[in-house]
Specification:
By secondary structure, this protein is an all-alpha fold. Helices cover 71% and strands 0% of the residues.
Length: 90
């Protein structure tokens, strides 16, 4: 019985200490310089995200054009693209 009580006490201590370890300290209030710096950082991150989205859209457009060029209008491979070249038969 003592072993069971010891295990329960150990588990309880572990659970309480884990909860305390995860507690967060409150964020200190920011002064004007820190607020301006944070705002500039946020604007820079937004600009980078916008450029990334534009680059992704451009790459997707190129992929679609390449697909359409290779598959024609019907969605099937173009007959000219499917035929092997004469020089490749050697």
């Amino acid at each position: 019985m003592k072993t069971g009580n010891l295990l329960v006490a150990g588990a309880l201590a572990f659970a309480l200490s884990a909860g305390l370890a995860q507690a967060k300290l409150p964020v200190a209030p920011m002064d004007d310089a820190a607020k301006a710096q944070a705002e500039a950082k946020k604007a820079k991150a937004a600009e980078a995200a916008k450029k990334g989205a534009e680059a992704l859209a451009k790459a997707q457009d190129r992929a679609v054009e390449n697909y359409k060029k290779g598959h024609g209008k019907g969605g099937k491979p173009d007959a000219r693209a499917a035929k092997p070249m004469a020089s490749a038969k050697k």
